[in-house]
Amino acid sequence: AQSVTQLDSQVPVFEEAPVELRCNYSSSVSVYLFWYVQYPNQGLQLLLKYLSGSTLVESINGFEAEFNKSQTSFHLRKPSVHISDTAEYFCAVRFSGGYQKVTFGIGTKLQVIP
Amino acid sequence: DGGITQSPKYLFRKEGQNVTLSCEQNLNHDAMYWYRQDPGQGLRLIYYSQIVNDFQKGDIAEGYSVSREKKESFPLTVTSAQKNPTAFYLCASSLQGEAAETQYFGPGTRLLVL
């Protein structure tokens, strides 16, 4: 069965500092990987996704994630965070091929400190 | 604008009462999903539907029921059999097929027990 592990439930970081949110998955087959962001009392929004090709994917607001097959990881990074990045971030995985449900991690709350 | 709407934003349930959460989408998506979100547990899949008049149980379907009579609508009923219904409920939709399509989320309904 596929599973997703987000090792950090909360990550405090000062404004303009770099941040890395960790995500590891378990799967023996090809997967698609996603990061979603949730602002307070709202639904989730897709931040970025890896389907195939380049292992480094970027979002429009400066986040990036790198697919590492050997380490089964898909960590999310940003070189300089802003107050507006304060939110909860969910890593998700889906098997490739046919319909497969998406499995979400438990989420990491990013708290940007002024 | 295309998107997913959920209503109401807040819902209060009395003991022994069934309540229905609404989810409507105008994205022309075939697939729709219901998730339950609890603090520290991420998102758990309740039910999903890949096509009109068909739906499958997710990981935590007990105490819930759904219908899919129209492509645009996927209401969720929380029955009296669900003993711990207090949570944030998220509806999502996506395109269908083998492509790893993004899930688009509604703003959520927060259910509270009186």
Walk me through this protein's architecture.
The complex is a heterodimer of chains A (114) and B (114). Helices cover 0% and strands 53% of the residues of chain A. Chain A is mainly β and 114 residues long. The mean pLDDT of chain A is 90. With 114 residues, chain B is mainly beta. Chain B is 0% helix and 51% strand. In chain B, strands 2, 4, 5, 6, 9, 10 and 11 form a 7-stranded mixed sheet that branches.
- Give the averaged pLDDT of chain B, no decimals: 91
Q: Tell me, what's the shape of chain B?
A: globular
Mean pLDDT of chain A: 90
Oligomer: heterodimer
Q: Largest inter-chain interface?
A: A-B, 24 and 25 residues
Please provide the count of β strands of chain B. Answer: 11
Percent range for β-strand residues of chain B: over 45%
List the helices and strands and how they pair.
The complex is a heterodimer of chains A (114) and B (114).
Chain A: E1 3-5, E2 10-14, E3 19-21, E4 24-26, E5 31-38, E6 44-50, E7 56-58, E8 64-68, E9 73-78, E10 87-95, E11 103-104, E12 108-113
Parallel strand pairs in A: 2-12
Antiparallel strand pairs in A: 1-4, 3-9, 5-6, 5-10, 7-8, 8-9, 10-11, 10-12
Chain B: E1 4-7, E2 10-13, E3 19-25, E4 31-38, E5 42-51, E6 54-57, E7 64-66, E8 76-78, E9 87-94, E10 104-105, E11 109-113
Parallel strand pairs in B: 2-11
Antiparallel strand pairs in B: 1-3, 3-8, 4-5, 4-9, 5-6, 7-8, 9-10, 9-11
